[in-house]
Structures are given as structure tokens and as C-alpha cells.
Specification:
492 residues; alpha/beta; Alkaline Phosphatase, subunit A; four-stranded antiparallel β-sheet
Amino acid sequence: MAKNIILLHTDQQRWDSLGCYGNGSARTPHLDRLAGEGVRFEHHYASNPVCMPSRASLLTGRHLPAHGVIDNGIPLDLRVETLASALGKSGYDTFAAGKLHLTPFQSPAGLNHGESFAAWESGGLNGWDGPYYGFGRVSLVSGHGEGPANPRLGHYGRWLAAHHPEVFELTGIDRAPEPKFPGVYRSQVPVECHHSAYVADRAIEYLEDRDSGRPFFIFAGFPDPHCPFTPPEEYAALFDGVEFPAPSFREGEHEGKPSHYARLMHDHLFPTDGGATRAPDAEMLHHIVQNTYAMVTLIDRSVGRILDSLERLGLADETIVCFTSDHGELLGDHGLLYKGQLPYASLMRVPFIIRAPGIAPRVTCAPMGNVDVMPTLMALAGVAVPTGVQGESYVPVMTGGAGRVRDAAFSCGWSKASRLYRHMSLHSDTWRITWWPGQQDGELYDLTSDPNEFENLFHREEHRGRRDALMEVLLRAYAEAGPLEPHVLCNW
């Protein structure tokens, strides 16, 4: 019998945000328990450092050049096979709650994209709950922070309007206590009305009401801990007086790197690609970090409720549970905040935990990319992988049959702002190499001696041989990643 699958997915969550990854300030007992019962990947990398491209890779098993979502604002082609559609063809019932972001939030109403703010506000999506990219039914959250608490936006906003209309009078910075900053404050929305709780509620509701005669695939997409940094007040208060790990930053570190790194300290180079900018002063940054930890803790609590429901319903022993994120957050590292088309580990390295029936717990340093998630889940479920999937199954690593599948994970990206910021990278557990073709410049880091990526070795003469060898591997990987293949209508 095919195994059930739950894919727990967050937005903009760093790999080192959980206790199981060594963060002593984190309060994540449920995810730590999941990691202790499953396989924890120390070096799992996103395909791109912003939302839509990475999510498209996760759900198609394809790199950016092959699926075409090379930056935010580009809808995934409906003809591309997704994990949900492939599982649906094999008899699975498929459901998604929360944020998917496979179509742009800012697209015009007339296109009627399922996640378009304008389409929701126009009433064009009234009564709609799917199908959507292979999911038979969806219950979507539109946006981040308190933004989704809007009676016109998404299934979550409509749910609030129907069941908790009082919430709309509680949102906004004016309602928040001190200390507060633009986009950084303690929300007065009750925890039970927060979108992290909503995602868990819908997943649990699905589990309780599902068709027991079919295997299921649930995608639970938590919009947090993406900015704005506005957790419920009681969760932020949990971290009052807590000391957090200091950001990774060294004066002068941008010297010797491609020129745009230094420019980011005073220019907004990625206004439409994540908004990476100079980190704020220490007080504001502290509250950003504190609120981020609070959001992660609420996600952990919500995940715990889903896991408890699996146990209560007798489904835990026949369900694969996977937890990951689309990309990270700079959070002060390298003197920067937010995200952008930058292949730093702060953005590219994300948590990946998977618990599967019959597979013993372990920790692995095998480099893995999010294109590998789809084929891995399908292999565990005993479902054939569609043609066109470029990722590989990591089941041999999970079972201990292989130390690694490949030596490095591939990522790449474009920017709507400038062709100068097009990039491609290979991420290993011991090194990272990046090429910026628009600038004819590159990066090379020895992660064993320089885990924070301070010292660019790309132009060091003593590393020339290693650089040239890795550049050849990188360019071969880029060639294999694409190009976008046209969709064939017929044989001739």
C-alpha cells in the first residue's frame, strides 16, 4: 500500500533556527522530536534564495531553467507535472493549506490566478477551493504578517470574516505595545486566529474527515517566519531577556567579493527580488531576531498539533512526514537583512527533516537540493517519478546504503533588477563556488575553515587549480539544468 505523505513547509526559515540544528536559544521541541525520529540533513539547499523559484523546484523536481520560474512574479506553467499531480494520478487524495506561491500575489485580477490579491478582492475567486496545480482542494493564506487578516483575501481571510470578525479591529502597529518598529511588533491577534494555527487546523480537519480508502498528500505551507516580523504577543514574550546567537559579520568582509556585495550596504539592489538591505541598528535588529524566534516557536507548536493528530488517528506508522523551507533569511549576517539574489548559506541552506516508516533515525552531511525532495518522497511512497524530474532520490542516504548521492547541490537565479545579478552555484558540505556571468566574477569558499563565507578564494593564485576544476563542474551542472523545454502538443 502506498504511504501517506505530509510536507510541512515554511517561508524564509534558516537552517540553524531549530534546536536540533544546534541552536540553544530556539524552543522547538516538536520539530526536534521529529528530527530525533527521522533523518536530519545537515546540508540541504534551496534552488534559489527567493520564494517562487524555490517552491517551483520543490514541487516539480526541476531546476529553474527547466521549469521557467526564474524569479518571483512568474507563474508556474499549469502543464508542468507537480508532486501533487503525479501523486493524484497514482490514486492519492491531495490537499494544501496555507501558502503555496505558485502564482504571483500581485498579478492582475483578470488572469484569475489562485493566489492573486486582485483576483480575490474582485470576487473572481468566490467559492473556489481548487483544483490547483494537482491539489484537489486548497485552503490558502494570502501574504505575510498581519496582511492575510483581510476579509477579502484568501480562504484564511474569508474564514476570519465568517468566524472571528473581531480580529480585524486588533491588527496594525497602532494596536501593538512598545517596543515596536515598522514591520516589527507584537501582534494582538489571538494565537488561535493566527495563520500558523489556521494551517494546522485545516490539516488536522482534513485528517479527521479524509477518505480513508485512499492514501493522502497534505502540503501544509506556513507563511512565517517571513517578514513582517509580527508574532502574537505571548510568543514574543517567551523570548524576553533571551540572548541570541550573534550575526555572522566581519568588518571589511565584502572586499574581494563581486562589487555588488559592498554596494548593498548603501543601495537597494533587489527591490523586487527580496529587498536585501543593510541591517538596522542593534535595538531594532534584536527585536527582529526575537520576533523571528517567536514565529518559529508558534510554527513548532502547530507542527506538534499535526503530529499529535497523526498519533491519535493511528496514522503515524503509515505516514511520511517531511519538514523544510523555501529559503533562509540574512537576519544580520554579512551586515544585511531580508533576502535577495545572493547565494549565501544564510539564504540557501534550509532545514530538511524527514521521518518515514521503517527507516531508522540518522544525521547526514550528504549535500541535497530541494529538487531532490519530489523524487525522494515518490520513491518512499512507491510511486513512479515523472519524466522531466531532474532531482534524484535520497532514499539510499536515508537508509544508510550510500554516503551521498552527489557531491554538491546546484542553484541558480536571475534578477528582475539587472542582468548583473544572474548567478549559478554549487553548494557542498565543505565548499561553495559561484559564477556571476553578468559581472564575469565569482566566489569560492572553503567551508571547513571559513563556514561564514567571509574569505573569497576565487582570485587567490594558490586556489586557481581548484577553482578551475570546480568551475568546469559548475558549468556542466548548469548545462544539465536546462533549457526550458517547450510543451509538445502532438507527435507531428
